[in-house]
Here is the input.
Amino acid sequence: MSERANTSEMLSTDHLLGIQDLGVADIDLIFRTADGFKEVLSRPIKKVPSLRDITIANLFFENSTRTRISFELAEKRLSADIINFSSSSSSTKKGETLIDTVSNILAMKVDMVVMRHPDPGAAVFLSKHVRACIVNAGDGTHEHPTQALLDAYSIREKLGRVKGVKVVIVGDILHSRVALSNIHCLKKLGAEVMLCGPTTLMPRHVESLGVRVEHDLDKALRWCDVANMLRIQLERQGSDGISNFPSLREYAMLYGLTMERYDRAGKQITIMHPGPINRGVEITSQVADHTNSIILDQVENGVAVRMAVIYLLAARIPRAQ
Here is the structure.
């Protein structure tokens, strides 16, 4: 992969706005491309000159550590030129609109925009108003497509398949963009999906997405092959941070994954978490660091999967003659 993609296999979309825009063939292509980049990342020199002629702007209108670093590392490994943008020090604080902000950046001849934004649909809106490839790095409580891709990729790597695997997503489903993207991705790939959490953190009509709902974590663990533990997103809840349940202590008692609860399931369960981890709330340190935990594998796979997404989308950008 030393040059830009020059293959008949290409993604069916010019942007990555959400999992629903991808077909199964697209996801398979991303995974196979990520396999190649994982081999690159194991080399002494972890860099390829594939995107030397591409400039990427990282626009983060929300705080981020893991996702931003993962995207930046993926872009650097592909030798792209990078522009980093932070809303805290930008003209958006002076009232500049999103389109004006991005248009000014695109005037610098940027080819691709990786954007995280607090408003659902911001990436879709932007894709209709600017001429650049848009990658959604998370839009409000809507979608986080690359997280879902790396999660499914990690399941495939650990278990050898995704089809037929029973995955329970536990926790704050209501406020989670990770949950929605995971549901779409896992269902497309043939996995069985269950959601587990308190009623107050479960969206209405969630069964319409083709998933099962269980409010007893012990029953969910006995059912599943994989448990993906979500953090409680206090910043997206009420002013007191815990308006959807009595206390963090009670939540941890009912929905926190401890070694005692893990052992009661009586089976080997693959443990996942998209991060950041609230140790002692949704998961204890013993479980997070267990041999069946693939949390750090998710972090590693995130770079390879994001490299694959960026590389394949860049192949659809018209090149200067």
Notes: DSSP finds eleven helices and nine strands in the chain. Residues 59 and 270 are 33 Å apart (CA to CA). The chain has two domains: 19-143+300-314, 145-297.
